[in-house]
Amino acid sequence: MRVRPSFAIGVGALLTAIVAIVGGGAADDELAAELAANAQLAIVEAGGDGVTATFSSLNGWPSRHAVLSGAEDMGDTKRTNIAQAVSRVPGVGGVFWADGTMIAERGEREVAPLHCQDDIEAILGTRTIRFEESSANMDPRSYELLDEVAKALRPCLGAIIGINGHTDSSGDEERNITLSRQRAQAVRRALIDMQLPADGLRARGLGSSEPVEGLDTTDPANRRIEFSVIATVPLVPTPVDTPGAR
Predict the structure, then answer these.
(1) Residue 179: exposed, middle, or buried by beta-carbon count in 10 A (0-12, 13-18, 19+)?
(2) What is the mean pLDDT of residues 71-78?
């Protein structure tokens, strides 16, 4: 039976996408496992025998954010020391206690803008916030990724975060600018729904004016959302940042 070229191309594209997804998932699993191993060493050194660090989201996806458990009977000072030890492990994003009483790092030291910038860029290094074709409606699967971005931004509360929408150069540029702005605004609304302060989020649509370095302006990979830490101020501890009653 003769196979139509269009069918063969479609099958090839599908197989390529499957390989990319599987490969990306394997890389994420390896990163999470490495972070867990290094975090466990840090926990032991901090005297946290019995404490475990889990690097996965509620839906089971690998994550750079640690959720600590097993310290219910420990004092607040020891819990703080353990959480801060894990937060210093290279590559770790946010650190949370499973019972929700503390977020590590906040109030102990200022978080420089580049710290948050690096965390976000690491999260988006191999994954992209996706939208429906020619639409500002976010792909439902991207909310999991955006949740990771929101967690990476939380230590930077007080900063001004730029949300920048980009497109490739195909089509009318005025339409590209409008669409990129609408997508950035959609991300801003979603982050506000995730409890990030609205007054710290700035959405812009840049159209195709700033393509990815090294890519042709028509390359679809230029369609993306980027974040930039524009300014920051020192953080002041609040009750949610420090140990509380259990």
Answers:
(1) buried
(2) 75
Strand-pair partners of 62: 56
Q: CATH top-level class for 113-231?
A: alpha beta
Mean per-residue pLDDT over the chain, rounded: 77
The whole-model pTM stands at 0.50
Which has the closest alpha carbon to 167: 185, 180, 178? Answer: 180
Q: How far apart are the first and last CA of the chain?
A: 69
- The ranges assigned to domains in the chain are 5-105, 113-231
Q: Sign of the C-alpha dihedral, residues 233, 236, 238, 242?
A: positive
Distance CA(14)–CA(7), nearest Å, equals: 11
pLDDT digits (tens, 9 = 90+) for 157-201: 777 889 999 999 998 999 999 999 999 999 999 999 999 988 889
Which residues, other chains included, contact 68 with Cβ-Cβ below 8 Å and sequence gap of 6+? 43, 51, 52, 53, 54, 82, 83, 86, 95, 96, 97, 98
- DSSP sequence for 93-149: --EEETTSS-BSSTTTS---HHHHHHHHHHHTSS----B-TTSSPBPTTHHHHHHHH
